[in-house]
Each structure stands twice: as structure tokens, then as C-alpha cells.
Amino acid sequence: MMEPLKNMFQEETMRKFAYTLHSYDEDFQVERFLKLVFDEEWETLELKARCRKISISLGKCLPSNYQMAIDILEKAVSGYSFAIFFPDFVEVFGLDDWDISIKVLERNTQYWSSEFAVRAFILKDEKRMMKQMLVWTTHESEHVRRLASEGCRPMLPWGQSIPQFKKDPSPILPILEALKKDDALYVRKSVANNLNDISKTHPQLVIDLMKTWIGKDERTDWIIKHGCRSLLKKGNLEIMQLFGYQAINQVHIKEFHLEKDTIAIGEELVFMFDIVSDQDIKIRIEYGIDYIKANGKTNQKIFKLSEVSLKAGKQLSYVRKQSFKDTSVRKHYTGKHTLTLIINGTACQSLAFDVIKT
């Protein structure tokens, strides 16, 4: 099993880093810093909280002059791959030293992504920060261009919320327009994720925008497909039509069945089916599983199976396995579950099965 990222901050490596700081600032108190970081609550903290703990501890041990502290830190963090707390330090102590902080984040985002840190600057002065991020869309570094998009995502996972962009995402759109043909896949993925975020609160805005984007550049078309994934999963008719998915009146599902209708947690659900159409048609095949939650209620998770152009009269056969092994992101519970086949956004057939403990 992969070691949790929060464990990158080992006392031995942090001590080495502290002595590096001391080499650039003879007044830096190594033992005091380590004592502040590794206090009685350290073991209870997750990754972001540990970064914040390190930032605050650095603030107590470095010079109170922000420029001096940044100069020391920027020299010291070079070569330390775990220094992801550096942008957090800028967020905590640099909001009132705008010009210094923005240059630091721009210089260092390729080493320690600054998408979390810039959100505090957006909240402090949205117009000023979004103007800066628009400038970043033309930067020579793909890391900085990505920061322009990733930093203003309305629903960035683990990031500080930006409520005004959930309410009105229009200030984000010039950023996305500027990056919609970016050569770097790294940047295009961020643009797509930003669009997907927006689609969850303002679906029609995204649909209307995608209608003006589609078919003009293959890089943009890639963004559209990935940026509309939530709308596709919801079977939004306008998006389905935009991608050429038609009504499935002449599509037929045959022999849809489970290998067994009772499985134990840790086993695999195996299902199979045939699909045939009376006409040539482009189809998107998905399946949804209504998982039992801890409170006994159900929540459907949709999985993409295939996209294919199906010729009239040609039959395709599918066999799929779905693991019911507990993981760090999904815990399974006993009870009656439902498996549903979804074609072009339309739920077609469903089968029930029981999940039990061995």
C-alpha cells in the first residue's frame, strides 16, 4: 500500500531542512522550530494541516520581515521535494505583500503547485488576482498557465472554497477562453476540470459555451469532451446531441445477466450483455451501481464502459467485472444493490443483487 503523503514530513528530514535554513540565517533556532512542528497534535494532522503547522512554525522562527523570510526560504527549499508547504507560507504571511508573493508563486509553482495558495488572494481581491491570472495564461511555462486555470476552479478538491465563483463563474471564462487551445495536455486537463466544476452549478452556461467551441480545434474538442463528463453521465440531452449521440429507440439489449446474484465484500460482480441496433448509431455505454451507504440509503455511481459506432445488425458482446473490495475511497456495505445499463444517457435495464459479508 502506498505511504500516505502526510508521512513525507519525517523528523529526520525536517531536521536536515532546519539546518539548511540555519545555514542561510544563523538566528534560525533549529530545536525551537522542530519542537513547534512535532508537538502533541502532530500525529493527528492530515497533509494540509501539517503544511499549515509547518508554515506557522516557520513564521515564528524566521525574520518578521516578509521579504527577508522569503529570501531565506526560497534558497533553503531548493532540492527538497517535500517543501510543498512553501506556497502555504506565502498564503499565510504574504497576503499584504502582494507584489512579492505573486512573483514567488509564479517562480515556484513548477516545483510546488500554488493552486491552493492563490485562492486566498482571489478571496482578498478578486479583480486584481483574476487580472494577474489572465496574464499568466500567456506565460511560457505550462505550470504557470495551468495555475491560471487550476487556481480558480470553483470546486477544487481539498482547496479553499470560492463561493462567488459557485454563484457566478463568469470571471473564470476569460481564463478558459485563453487556454482552450493550449498545447500542453497538463493545461488542457485543468481547463476541462474547471469546466466540469462549473457544469455542476451552471450546466446551461457550459452547454452554451461548448456549442460555440466545438469543431474548431482538436485540442479544444478534447477539453470539451472531458469538461462535459458530468453532464454526459447525467444524460443531458443537449450534450448528448452535441457529441452525436442519438435516441436509442432502435437499440436492443439482450442476455443481460449476472454471473451470480449474491457476492461477498471483497469479491467481484461479473455481468454480461449483448447489444444490437436496427440502424447505424453512435453509442455511449455506461453502467450505474446503486451502492448502499453506511446510513442504509443508496447512492448511484456511474462507470463508463465503452463508446462505439454500432453498425445496423451487428451485435456486440460485453463482459465486465466490478470489484467490491474495500479501498481507501470506497467502503462497501451489505444489502440489496442495483446494477443499471445506461445507453446514450438513458437507463435501459436493471438487475438487483445482494452484497453479503463472508
Structure report:
This is DNA alkylation repair protein. InterPro entries: ARM-type_fold, DNA_alkylation, HEAT_type_2. Pfam families: DNA_alkylation. It comes from [Eubacterium] hominis. The protein is of the alpha+beta class. Among the domains are: 1-114; 251-356, Immunoglobulin-like (Sandwich), CATH 2.60.40.10. The chain is built from 16 helices and 8 strands.
Task: Give a nutshell description of this structure.
The chain has 358 residues and is α+β, with helices and mostly antiparallel strands. The chain has helices at 11-24, 30-37, 47-61, 66-76, 86-93, 98-108, 117-124, 126-136, 142-150, 163-167, 173-179, 185-201, 203-213, 218-227, 229-233, 237-242, and strands at residues 251-258, 262-264, 268-277, 281-292, 298-310, 315-323, 335-343, 346-356.
Primary descriptors:
DNA alkylation repair protein; 358 residues; 3-stranded antiparallel β-sheet; 5-stranded mixed β-sheet; 16 helices; globular; HEAT_type_2; single chain; ARM-type_fold; alpha+beta; DNA_alkylation
- Spatial extent as radius of gyration: 25 Å
What's the order of the H and E elements?
HHHHHHHHHHHHHHHHEEEEEEEE
Helix content: 40-55%
Helical stretch tally: 16
Average pLDDT reading: 94
Shape: globular
**What order do the strands of the largest sheet run in, or round the barrel if closed?**
2-8-7-4-5
The counted number of beta strands is 8
Largest sheet: 5 strands, mixed
Q: Approximately how much beta-strand content do the residues carry? A: 15-25%
Structural class: alpha+beta
CA-to-CA gap between the ends? Answer: 23 Å
Return residue spans where pLDDT drops below 50 for at least 5 consecutive residues.
none
